[in-house]
Write a structure and sequence with these properties.
Strand content: 35-45%
Distance between the termini: 25 Å
Strand order of the largest sheet: 1-2-4-5-6-3
Order of helices and strands: EEEEEEHHH
Largest sheet: 6 strands, antiparallel
Structural class: alpha+beta
Shape: elongated
Number of strands: 6
Helix content: 10-25%
Length: about 150
């Protein structure tokens, strides 16, 4: 675990290795995969008398090009295995996804959630539902919404 922000309900882990069973990085072609790491955000928010848990992940593979000695990072698509294991470790009553799908690691809108209007609660809910954000980006947006 890299960090835990109690006030925002975020647990962040990074530099976790993964294999083909957990994410699909596509064919490397002539490049050689030399490293794989994942970063995981676990968001815990109150929802009525229960807690809502959201698991976001980002998988990256680094590939080496022996022709020009360069390296390239490739975004990989999660297969949902890591996320499902985390949710099942929480025990009975934890949300179980029916189907996992790849999510973009960047917000499609050019504006951060906090500048798109709405009440503070709506902005926090939108931020909570935004998948694929790094811990730093989540914290930046959270502080912007909260006026910090």
């Amino acid at each position: 675990m890299k960090s835990f922000a109690k006030d925002s309900g975020v647990i962040f882990a990074e530099a976790v290795t993964f294999d083909e069973g957990q994410a699909d990085c596509g064919s490397p072609g002539l490049l050689k995969p030399i490293a794989r790491y994942a970063s995981i955000n676990i968001l815990v928010r109150p929802q009525g008398s229960a807690q809502k848990v959201t698991v976001n992940s980002r998988f990256v593979e680094t590939r080496f090009n022996s022709l020009d000695y360069s390296s390239t990072r490739v975004e990989c698509n999660s297969k949902g295995v890591v996320e499902e294991r985390i949710l099942s470790a929480l025990g009975p009553g934890a949300p179980t996804p029916a189907k996992w799908q790849a999510v973009p690691t960047r917000e499609p809108s050019s504006q951060p959630a906090a500048t798109q209007g709405g009440s503070k609660e709506q902005q926090l809910q939108e931020l909570q539902n935004t998948q694929g954000l790094s811990y730093e980006e989540y914290q930046r947006r959270y502080r912007l919404i909260m006026g910090q």
